[in-house]
């Protein structure tokens, strides 16, 4: 019988579901490679320095497996800063998961904004529809299914793999 390593679905796992099931499984089983990635470090730096006064204006919210760094309670808006647009669907899914969790806390009309400071662009994420809620509940089930697998899922061989912090781990011994 498989031991479930991660007891809660997190926004990170939802984002990884939209990026790579192998990365999701490894992260959930506490095999973390993000600390070795220059791209991850750059993304954190952009998030910390792009909007210097944001921490004065917005609050950090943490509950039930999610941590929202910048939430505007008046406008009921989640602000998420990202480095680039390479995994935009994962960025959107992460913010939608925040909205889903806020909805479970009684904040049904929250929206989000994904900000790409280097591109000087932002992408709105509207409040969730009932169909969105059903879809996201399915994401939670799929995350739980992948985490419970006895073995790590296979390498997915996507172009984004070369920028992933898990690249060396996934491709050790393979020639590309």
Word description of this protein:
The protein starts with 10 loop residues before the first helix and ends in a 5-residue tail after the last helix. The longest helix is centred in the last third of the chain and has 18 residues, at 130-147. It has a 5-stranded mixed sheet with strand order 1-2-3-4-5. α1 (11-17) runs antiparallel to α2. The chain has a single domain, classed as Lambda Exonuclease, Chain A (Alpha-Beta Complex), CATH 3.90.320. With 176 residues, the chain is of the alpha+beta class. Mean pLDDT is 83; it is low at 1-6 and 37-43. A hairpin with a 4-residue loop joins β4 and β5 (121-125). Helix content is 40%, strand content 16%.
Concise account of the structure shown:
The chain is 40% helix and 16% strand.
């Amino acid at each position: 019988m498989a031991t479930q390593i991660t007891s809660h679905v997190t926004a990170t796992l939802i984002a990884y579901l939209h990026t790579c099931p192998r990365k999701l499984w490894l992260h959930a089983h506490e095999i973390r490679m993000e600390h070795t990635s220059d791209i991850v470090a750059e993304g954190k730096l952009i998030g910390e320095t792009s909007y210097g006064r944001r921490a004065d204006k917005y609050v950090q919210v943490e509950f039930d497996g999610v941590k929202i760094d910048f939430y505007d309670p008046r406008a009921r808006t989640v602000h998420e800063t990202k480095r680039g647009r390479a995994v935009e669907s994962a960025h959107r899914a992460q913010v939608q998961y925040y909205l889903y969790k806020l909805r479970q806390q009684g904040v049904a009309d929250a929206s989000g904004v994904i900000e790409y400071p280097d591109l000087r662009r932002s992408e709105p994420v509207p409040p969730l529809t009932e169909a969105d809620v059903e879809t996201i509940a399915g994401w939670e089930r799929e995350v739980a299914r992948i985490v419970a697998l006895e073995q790590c899922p296979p390498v997915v061989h996507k172009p984004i793999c070369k920028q992933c912090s898990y690249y060396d781990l996934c491709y050790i011994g393979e020639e590309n």
